[in-house]
Amino acid sequence: MESKTIDFERGWDHVYKGIKQLRRILEGLPEPLFTSGEYVMLYSTVYNMCARNPPHNYSQQLYDKYREVLEEYITSTLSPSLRGKRDEFLLRELVKIWVNHKVMVRWLSRFFNYLDRYFVDYRSLPALNEVGMTCFTDLVYREVQTNIKDAAIVLIGKEREGDRIDCSLLKNVLDIFVAVGMGSMERYEDDFEADMLRDTGAYYSRKASSWIEEDSCPEYMLKCEECLKKERDRVFHYLRSSSEVKLIEKVQHELLVTYIDRLLEKEHSGCRALLRDDKADDLSRMYRLYCKIPRGLDPVADIFKQHVTAEGTALVQAIGAASNAPGVQEHVLLRKIIELHCKYMAYVTDCFQNHNLFCNALKDAFKVFCNNTGTDSSSAELLATFCDDILKKGGSEKLSDEAIEETLENAVKLLAYINDRDLFAEFYRKKLARRLLFDRSANDDHERSVLSKLKQQCGEQFTSKMEGMVTDITLSRENHAAFEDYLRSNSAAHPGIDLTVTILTTGFWPSYKPCNLNLPTEMIKCVEVFKGFYETKTKHKKLTWIYSLGTCNLSGMFDQKTIELVVSTHQAAVLMLFNTSDRLSYSEIMDQLNSTHEDLVRLLHSLSCAKYKILSKQPDTKTISRSDYFEFNSKFTNKLRRIKIPLPPVDEKKKIVEDVDKDRRYAIDAAIVRVMKTRKVLGYQQLVSECVEQLSQTFKPDIKAIKKQIEDLITREFLERDEENPNTFKYLA
Amino acid sequence: MHKLGRSHRDKVQQFMTITGASEKAALQALKANLYKRYKDPYTDMILVDGITLLCNDIQVDPQDIVMLVLSWHMKASTMCEYSKQEFFTGLQALGIDSLGKFRERIPFMRSELKDEQKFGEIYNFAFGWAKEKGQKSLALDTAIGMWQLLFAEKQWPLVDHWCQFLQARHNKAISRDTWSQLLEFARTVDTSLSNYDAEGAWPYLIDEFVEYLNENGIISNAQSMTDWSKK
C-alpha cells in the first residue's frame, strides 16, 4: 500500500471515474468489466483518503459522496423507468431496477469498503448497504408502494379465479417488501400483507355467501378443502411463510366459522343427515376442517351426541314395544345396543380421530339410554344376564371363541355407561356362583377373561371377590383329590356313596340362607366323614353346610326301568322319605323334613306337578296345597336313562337390590367421613359433589341418600353444622 | 333484681333480727323454704306433684309455655322434674326469693319469648328438655306438642301443615338437627317458599315437607295464609 496523502479532488476524481464505468456496465453498454488491478486501485484510493490523520482524512466527505452517488443514480436512471407504468408492467420494471440497484450498491460498497470497517462504527453511522437500502426506500419504494401492493393483490385475485400468473414475479416483488424492512417484517406486513388479508377476506366472504345458498354441505366442504389447499400452495409459491397462519385463519373464518350453523344444520345434507346416511367420508372431512378452529368441533360433537342418543332411545323403545318373550327381548336389546356402540365407536375412531369431545359425546349419549331399559329389570341386571347367557353351557355354542370374546369385550365396555355398577357386580356374582357350583360354565378361559376385563375397567376391588370364587373352585378340585386319597386309606370311613364337596370361602361368595333340613341318614354319614377328613387338614376353620346348592344322583327304581335322576339335595331328601313310607301327607313330609312352607311347596311342585312326575299327588291338581298326599310314582318312565329334574330357583332380585342398597349406605357413609376427615370444614354442595366423585366408579349415588347419611352422621356426632352458616359442616374428631 | 318490696323487706328484717343472719343468708333461707315446699317427700327433687303445686301457687297452667321458660332459666335437664340445683339456679337467675316475686316475674318471662335471640335459645333448649333421658331423638307426639306450643308464640303459619305432614309421612322420632333447622326454616323461608333453596343443606325431612306442600297445592294458597295466621 502506498502511503501518501492524497488531495481530495484528485482522489475523488479517480473514484468517480470508476463509478461512471460501473454505471455504463449496468446500463448494458459495451464496457469491459473491472480487472482486479483496477479494483484494487479504487479501493486503495479510498483507503488513502480515509486512513489519514486530519486534515487529510476525507472519510466524512466520502461517506456523503457515497450517498450522493446513489441518490443521483436512482433519480436519474431508476425512478424514471417506473413512471407511467401500471399493473404487471410496473411490477416487472420494479424488479428489474431493484436488481440493478442491488448490483450498484454491492460494487460501490466494495470500493468504499474501508469506510465500513472503521468510520461507520466509529461515528455510529448506518453501514453502507443500509444507506443503499434507505436511498432505495426513500426515492423509489415510497412512491410506488401503494401501486405495487394493489397490482400484486390484483394478480392474486386473478389466480384465485383460475388464471395462471407469474409466481416468480410475485415472489420477487414480495422479496422487495421484506428487504425494505431491513431486518423487520414491518413493511411486508403493513404495506402489503394487511391489505392482502383484507382482500382475501372480502373475496371469500362473497364466495361463501353464494356457495352456502347453492351447495349441499358435502359440496361446500369440498370447496373449502380445495380453497384451503390452494391458499397453502400460494404461501409456498410466493407469499412469506409468516403469512400462512393469518391467511388460513382468515379463509377459515369466512368459509367455516361465519356459516357454521347454516352449514351443519342444512336439512338434507347437514351433519345430522350425514350421520343418518352413514357418510363417513364427509364426516371425516367435516372433522378435518373444523378441528383446527377453536371451539369449531363443539357443535359437531353436540349433533353427534344428540343423534346417538336419539338412535339409542328409539332402539330401546322399539324393543320394549315388540312382543317377544321377556328373556329373548332383553337379550336382543343388549345385542342391539352393542351393535350400536360398535357402529358409533367406529365413527369416533375413524372419522373423528378419537378426539376427546367425541369420546365424551358418545359416552354421554349412551349413559342417557343405557340406564332406561323400559322393562322391569334394571340395565345392570340385563347386562349380567346377558353375560350369563353367553358364559353358561348351551348359551353360545354356535359362536366361535373369537366371536364370544368380542361380544364379552363389548358387553364389558357397556358397563362404563351404566350407573349402577355395584348392582351389576352383585347380579354377576350371583350368576357366577350358580355357574360355578352347578358346573354350568362353558369355558374356564372365557370366565377368566371376562374377570380380567372387568378388573381393567372397574378396578381390582370390583372383581376381587369373584376371582376368589373361581380360585375356590380350583382349590376344591385339589381338595377333592386329597379327600379321595383319605377315603382310600381309611376304607372303614367310606360312607358308601360317592361324595364331592366344594368348599366356599365365606365373603367371596354371595350369602346363602342356612337351612336346617333333616337329611336322610345316608347323607348325614357323608357329612360326618367329610368333617372327619377336613379336621385332619385344618382345625381353625368352621364348615357351614349349604345343602340348597348341592346336587344328588338317585337311582329311581321304577317299574319299567331304572332311571337315574339328577336332582338337588333337597329334592333328594324329599324323595328318599319314600324309601320308608309308601304314602305321605304334606304335613308328614313337613315334619320329617323340617323345611319351610315356601321351600316345600317349591320342592313338591317340581317333583309332582312339573314335566317329570316322580311323585303322584292326590288330588291331581296343578298346585300344591297343605292337604295333599304324595306317593312314589312307580309307573313313571322316560325314554332317557338319565333325567334332570329342575328346581326353579327363588327369585333373588329383590334381595339383591336390598343388599346393594345397604352396601351403598355404608359406602356413602364412609365416603362422607373420608372427605370430612381431610377437609375438616366443608360446604354442603362441595361435600355432596366430592362424595359423588369418590363413588362414581361404583355407582351414581342419590343426592337424597347422601343427605340422609349426613344427618345420620350429625346424630352420631361425627359432624356438626357450623353455627354461623348452617350450609357448612365441620368434622368432629 | 334484688330490690325488696316493703312487706318483704320487713320479713327479711324480722328474720335477720330473730336469727342474727346477714341479708344474703336470709335470702338463701327463704329460697330453701320454697324448695322445701315443693320437693318430693322421698327424693331430693321436685317431681310432678311439686310442680303442680308450684303452678297453682304462681297461678300458671302447667301446660303454659311460661313453664318452659322457667325450665330454661333453671337449665333443667328434663321435663316434669327439677333437681335442687336446677331449682336454685332458676331462682337465682330470675331474682326470685319469694312467691310474690315469683308471680311478679311471670310477665317478664313471657316477654322473653318475644326476644328473637332468647326465643331461639329457648326453642333449642326445649329439644333436650322434652326428650326422654338417654334417647337421642324426640318422640314425634311430644315434638308436635312442643311445636304447637312454641309456634303459637312465634306465629309460623305452616306449623299445622308441618305437623300433619309428619304424621302422614314420617311417623318416626325427630333428630336434634331437624329440630333446630326447622326454626331456621320458619325464620328465613317465607310462606310462599319463594326463597327456599332446594339445593341447600336443609335436612331431608324439610325437603320432603316442601315437596308435600307443592304436591298438595298448599303453596299457591300462600295469600290466604297470612290472614289465617292472625287468629
From TrEMBL, chain A:
InterPro entries: Cullin, Cullin-like_AB, Cullin_homology, Cullin_homology_sf, Cullin_N, Cullin_neddylation_domain, Cullin_repeat-like_dom_sf, WH-like_DNA-bd_sf
Residue span, Cullin family profile domain: 378-608
Family matches, as Pfam families: Cullin, Cullin_AB, Cullin_Nedd8
Family the entry assigns: Belongs to the cullin family.
The protein's name in its UniProt record: Cullin family profile domain-containing protein
Source organism: Hibiscus sabdariffa
Automatic annotation (TrEMBL), chain B:
Every DCUN1 domain range: 26-214
InterPro entries referenced in this protein's UniProt entry, alphabetically: DCN-prot (IPR014764), DCN1-like_PONY (IPR042460), PONY_dom (IPR005176)
Function, in words: Neddylation of cullins play an essential role in the regulation of SCF-type complexes activity.
Protein name as it appears in the record: Defective in cullin neddylation protein
Species whose genome carries this gene: Hibiscus sabdariffa (roselle)
